[in-house]
Design goal:
It is a single chain. The chain has 226 residues and is an alpha/beta fold. The chain folds into two domains: 146 residues, Rossmann fold; 67 residues. It is built from nine helices and six strands, in the order E-H-H-H-H-H-E-H-E-H-E-H-E-E-H. Strands 3-2-1-4-5-6 form a six-stranded parallel sheet. The longest helix is centred in the N-terminal third of the chain and has 20 residues. The radius of gyration is 19 Å and the shape is elongated.
């Protein structure tokens, strides 16, 4: 028999909220910044979003600079990246996520383990309003970028915070390329949320990184766990 789950740890981006919403929010913040600092009124956020929707996520601000002839130097492009990462995001938890956390929290401990730049990750968590429902949070950036997933260190750290055995933990994430290698090796239960419009859910898993279970909605999680 499988061990009884005593802790459920969630990824953040594209798991508890839709990452696309964060991208769009960040583009709007950059457009507002350029309007304020350079008086540019073009529909830059819409242009960036159209590019993203076409599958062109990388090099967004270099492309913006070129397309709109902004004349930005490298330092100014870096400044836009900072605006994007430091903005207060307009994002919301997935429908039913808060209610799910409330139900799970009555049965087990809850944690969040997320890669990504700071302060962006903490600003996202604040915007979602779910931090009070979590018993432990680990942002791997605080440990050092070498400890981002698939490194096991973040999983070890949050297990220590939650104080439960590895085999009684479950991890819920979206990205097979990195999310499930460490929990699989540590004896956790690994669960991929795979639903429409996620950014990384179709990535190929490395050896040992295939999730044990795939769900199409957070509504399926309780039945999977218990």
């Amino acid at each position: 028999m499988k061990p009884i789950i005593q802790a459920v740890v969630f990824d953040l981006d594209d798991t508890l909220y839709a990452e696309r919403d964060y991208v769009r929010s960040g583009y709007r913040a950059v457009a507002r910044h350029l309007h304020k600092t350079r008086g540019r009124n073009e529909a830059m956020a819409d242009w960036l979003w159209g590019r993203f929707e076409a599958g062109l996520a990388g090099g967004a601000f270099d492309a913006l600079n070129e397309h709109f002839h902004l004349g930005l130097d490298a330092d100014s492009i870096t400044e836009l990246v900072g605006v994007y990462r430091d903005h207060k995001p307009d994002i919301h938890a997935r429908p039913g996520a808060a209610e799910l956390l409330g139900r799970l929290g009555s049965r087990c401990k809850l944690g969040l383990l997320s890669d990504g730049f700071l302060p962006a990750q903490s600003l996202k968590l604040d915007a979602l309003g779910i931090a009070p429902m979590l018993h432990a949070v680990v942002f791997t950036e605080e440990m050092g970028r070498q400890f981002w997933k698939p490194a096991p260190d973040g999983f070890e750290a949050i297990r220590d915070k939650l104080d439960v055995p590895h085999e009684a933990c479950a991890y819920v994430g979206d990205n097979p390329a990195k999310d499930f290698v460490a929990p699989n090796r540590l004896g956790w239960r690994s669960i991929q949320l795979r639903c429409p419009q996620q950014i990384h859910s179709a990535n190929a898993p490395p050896e040992g990184g295939t999730p044990q279970t795939v769900i199409a909605s957070l509504d399926e999680l309780e039945a999977t766990l218990f």
